[in-house]
Amino acid sequence: MTYDEFNDFCTALPATSHVIQWGGAHVWKVGGKVFAIGGWGPDDEPAFTFKTSDLDFDVLHNQPGFRPAPYLASRGMKWIQQIDLSGPSAEELKYYIRESHRLVSLGLPKKRQKELGLNQVS
Fold first, then answer.
1. How confident is the model at residue 119 (pLDDT cuts 50, 70, 90)?
2. Which of 102, 98, 96 is nearest to 81 (CA)?
3. Which of 55, 47, 67 has its CA nearest to residue 103?
4. Distance of CA 11 to the CA centre of its chain
5. Taking 80 as the threshold, does the pLDDT of residue 71 lie above it?
6. CB within 8 Å of 1: residues ≥ 6 apart
7. At residue 87, does pLDDT exceed 80?
8. Annotation: CATH topology of 3-114
9. From the CB of residue 91, how many other CB atoms can be counted at a distance below 10 Å?
10. What is the pTM of this model?
């Protein structure tokens, strides 16, 4: 996945916003809270960082091509960075980014979720 593909995918998720910050990283937010970051790869190679469930973190942090996200995981947060794009497929990465979006949106206050049209049960 390229940064352009990453940005196209993230922009299609509901209630997202994009900023370039933290040394040129593509930072994606839902309701003002970060859910995905494109950037910070070793040797300027593409890398993608996202929030995970406890189970996904336990599975991914030892998988080839993934590592606990620098700065975030060292502070006890369950964030993973994909650093080797030759391993997992783009579809797998999209699943984790979509799940990160969901997890972060669920952490927003209920009123904010409703304002953004997120997580509404019909």
1. confident
2. 96
3. 55
4. 12
5. no
6. 9, 46, 48, 85, 90, 93, 94
7. no
8. Aspartate Aminotransferase, domain 1 (3.90.1150)
9. 8
10. 0.89
